[in-house]
Specification:
Helix content: 40-55%
Order of helices and strands: HHHHH
Largest sheet: none
Shape: elongated
Structural class: mainly alpha
Number of helices: 5
Low-confidence stretches: none
Strand content: under 5%
């Protein structure tokens, strides 16, 4: 996982930090104070989510399924 994907992964759910064995001390600063909520994801268009989170997207997947995968990994 590259740094950008790791930061996006943590922005969605900062509790995921426990999945990493190494991370910078300033990881909270790097992800920013705002994480992505389910409501924010639901308000976005399906194709925007698919483009922004290609690692979670699969053809034929419904928006609700995509959001679940984004949030839960």
């Amino acid at each position: 996982m590259n740094n950008i994907l790791a930061l996006d992964f943590l922005r969605i759910n900062p509790d995921r930090i426990k999945l990493f064995t190494k991370y910078p001390e300033n990881w909270k600063d790097l992800i920013g104070s705002k994480s992505v909520s389910r409501e924010e994801l639901e308000a976005r268009k399906y194709n925007e989510l698919a483009k922004e989170y290609p690692e979670h997207f699969q053809i034929g997947m419904k928006k609700k399924e995509l959001i679940e995968k984004i949030i839960n990994g």
